[in-house]
Write a structure and sequence with these properties.
One of its GO terms (cellular component) is nucleus. By secondary structure, the chain is an alpha+beta fold. The protein has 28 helices and 22 strands. A hairpin with a 7-residue loop joins strand 11 and strand 12.
Length: 748
């Protein structure tokens, strides 16, 4: 049935009565939108209609009132006319309590006044004041007062209808009215805990407690030009003595009169010339920010950040994907034999993969590896890591599509890797999307130019090793960020994050030394991370925490607190100790201060650096995958890994099959220790790297069997050229002689 909405004046609409509750109130926040339809002589509050017990949406979205057919509405009005409201004692009570054996009925506005709960989800249930769901508080939480984190007014920590507690944060309390207004404004896509940004758990609890979360975009997203003011950048020179003759507001890009903003606050600026800066790449802080950075532990609050974009929406799937009929319209341990059936044999003529059906049986390279390998079954954890690392490889290859063919050369002194790398990354023409070319120089200015990928692998390996042992990180073996004021001043944390991001995308190794706490801070935000005792690298601080944590009586706990009074005061962790259980809260406060709050400024700089080439965004989208390469050491090379890594190019003379047999046997001998070389030596001989980078090799490693005297490792093409021999012993001797002597000469 079609109808049109009345275009009467507001006074005309307000004079009409809702057919379900009989009120004239026009309050969309409390009762939903009030709609009047002249053609059907009908006025109704949207929430009254939505929560009525005897009506369902049987029509399409454009039929009736948002799918509620007019005939069904009339039937519901007739049904409700026979029911008396248990609150106001008038007829027309269309809503009933869903609790078993409860026969209470009431109007929607009456239920609000009597503090009933209406759940705007699934079957749109209603609960009377006696059977409504309540939040459970512990004795410690009840009885005090806190601030509503939305309006900042005081709120009583009591199980009241007007008070709601966050399910994801211990000390987050809200007024119900504040939460409802926020939900109506934010909509289902942006409504979340204002303290920790949790969305799933928070929305699920708020829906259970009767908060209506509309399926719409946030109000600020719908407002035209809402962010126009944010597009303006600060352009003013605040130096006491400005040297620019054209004034403090003059800004000429790519010149000495270009204005650079404070890297910390962005609300102060300077011409490059006025602060004697030779390059835009130099960092600059205003006097106010310098004074703040100079004070220990006194940093500005970090802005709350949303969780990773890979959020699951369990709490809202019922609203978004499968609406209810009344939804508003909008085998481990078993032995196995590996068949190395030349998984990647390429035809020599067209270099396309040859299916096994195209080869006669004699051309299939098949053999069973030794019992030593067949006994090495991967654990579930290792299988999971391998799966995640394959996923990371694909993600990094996608990010590498940003890299163009334009080259940037970095002159690197291997004996001073950090300073030369820092200089290269900060040079004006450095662009992470350019192809990086490495030129190694020694301290005597004798250059050794190597433009191959091997040189780049070696550079990033040295750089990651330096970062692992630098003062920017602390702890062993898993590391967190340390607090180095000089590094903060020189913006070294940003540069470290940038170097790691560039290494991952450009084919270098991953750091592999991140602690789980550091990784979670980067991915989910520090406000959502709970550190552990093993994250504390400072021996004295760890000892203090242990004294408090393992105190077995109230007197010993108070004594421990007294002994470290100055430390607790400086950390802002002093709290009254009235019982032994207070130690748990105190230990948690110390850990959060020392591991997280103390390094907020370095952490934020490090995060900004990791945003280079979109790495941090992918970390947040695929946390499990990136954790496998940032928090775990690379898997030790095995014969199976090397076998899978190389693609064998077949030849037309039939020597490939026998040569591949020798290659497989040789890998087994190397793995079992029956060779003077290692699997790492083989990889280094061919690619110039001792490990497989997370992104993989480019080009992919290949093997060719040729009529040559000795093996050749072509690092430019990652190609291993192997001699065709009649006997395996001859093949093995040539491999060991060549690889051992080549690497020995390189090391010397």
């Amino acid at each position: 049935e079609e109808f049109r909405m009345s275009e009467n004046s507001n006074s005309g609409i307000q004079s009409s009565f809702c057919v379900l509750c009989g009120r004239t109130d026009d309050c969309p926040e409390k009762y939903g939108e009030k709609r009047t339809y002249v053609a059907h002589n009908l006025t109704v509050h949207y929430y009254c209609l939505l929560m009525s017990s005897g009506i369902w949406q049987r029509g399409e979205e454009d039929e009736g009132v948002d799918g509620f057919l007019i005939a069904d509405i009339q039937k519901e009005v007739n049904r409700a006319a026979k029911l008396k409201c248990n609150i106001c004692k008038k007829k027309g009570a269309s809503i009933g309590c869903v609790a078993p054996k409860c026969k209470r009925s009431y109007h929607f506005p009456c239920g609000i006044q009597r503090e009933c709960i209406f759940q705007f989800m699934e079957d749109f249930r209603s609960y009377c004041w006696e059977h409504k769901p309540i939040q459970k508080f512990s004795d410690k939480e009840s009885g005090g007062t806190s601030q509503c984190t939305i309006c900042l007014d005081l709120v009583e920590q009591l199980p009241l209808y007007t008070v709601l507690k966050s399910p994801c944060c211990k000390n987050a309390w809200f007024h119900r009215e504040c939460l409802q207004y926020q939900a109506l404004s934010a909509g289902i896509f942006f409504f979340r805990c204002s303290v920790c940004n949790n969305k799933d758990k928070f929305q699920k609890e708020m829906l259970r407690m009767g908060i209506h979360i509309p399926e719409k975009d946030a109000s600020w997203e719908l407002e035209e030009n809402a962010y126009q003011d944010l597009l303006q950048c600060y352009q003013h020179c605040d130096i006491k003595r400005c040297l620019c003759k054209k004034g403090r507001d003059y800004n000429e890009p790519d010149s000495k009169w270009e204005i650079k903003r404070c890297q910390c606050c962005g609300s102060r600026g300077t011409h490059l010339a006025c602060s004697a800066m030779k390059s835009w790449e130099q960092n600059w802080e205003c006097m106010e920010c310098r004074s703040i950075l100079a004070k220990s532990g006194n940093y500005s609050k970090q802005k709350k950040r949303s969780l990773a974009t890979s959020e699951k929406t369990d709490g809202a799937t019922c609203l978004l994907e499968e609406p209810s009929p009344k939804c508003p319209r909008q085998s481990s341990g078993s032995q196995r034999t590996f068949l190395l059936q030349s998984p990647k044999i390429m035809c020599q003529n067209n270099l396309s993969p040859c299916s096994h059906r195209e080869h006669p049986a004699s051309n299939r390279v098949r053999m069973s590896l030794s019992p030593l390998m067949s006994d090495r079954n991967c654990s579930l954890r290792k299988k999971h890591l391998r799966k995640n690392r394959r996923e990371v490889s694909n993600i990094l290859k996608e990010l590498k599509l940003q890299v163009n063919t334009k080259t940037t050369r970095l002159n690197i002194n291997a004996e001073n890797i950090w300073n030369s790398a820092l200089k290269g990354f900060r040079q004006r023409n450095f662009n992470p999307t350019n192809t990086i070319e490495i030129k190694f120089t020694n301290c005597k200015n004798r250059s050794q130019t190597d433009t191959s990928a091997a040189s780049k692998h070696h550079f990033f390996q040295l750089l990651m090793l330096h970062l692992q042992n630098s003062s920017l990180f602390e702890g062993s073996p898993a590391k967190n960020l340390s607090l180095d004021f000089q590094a903060v001043k020189e913006n070294l944390y940003f540069e470290a994050g940038k170097m790691i991001a560039v290494s991952l995308v450009h084919g270098g190794p991953s750091p592999c030394f991140f602690s789980k706490t550091l990784f979670n801070c980067l991915v989910y935000g520090p406000e959502n991370v709970k550190p552990a005792l093993e994250d504390v690298a400072d021996v004295d601080v760890a000892r203090t925490i242990k004294m408090i944590k393992y105190a077995n009586s109230l007197s010993s706990l108070q004594s421990a607190v007294h002994d470290c009074y100055e430390f607790l005061a400086a950390a802002g962790c002093l709290r009254p100790i009235t019982s032994l259980c207070d130690k748990n809260m105190l230990v948690n406060d110390i850990l959060i201060h020392h591991v997280i709050k103390r390094i907020i400024s370095p952490l934020e700089s490090f995060r900004q650096g990791l945003k280079t080439l979109g790495v941090l965004e992918k970390m947040q989208t695929h946390p499990d995958a990136f954790s496998s390469i940032l928090c775990h050491k690379p898997e030790r090379l095995s014969a199976e890994t090397i076998c899978d890594l190389f693609t064998i190019h077949s030849s037309s003379d039939g020597n490939t099959v026998e040569g591949a047999d020798f290659w497989m046997c040789y890998l087994q001998d190397v793995e079992s220790g029956e060779s003077v070389v290692t699997l790492e030596d083989i990889l280094l001989f061919v690619t110039g790297s001792i490990s497989i980078p997370p992104i993989g090799f480019d080009p992919e490693p290949t093997i060719k069997f040729l009529h040559i005297r000795y093996p050749v490792g072509n690092r430019l093409l990652n190609c291993l050229e192997l001699p065709i021999t009649k006997a395996y012993d001859q093949f093995k001797n040539k491999m060991e002689f060549t690889i051992r002597n080549t690497l020995r000469v390189e090391r010397e």
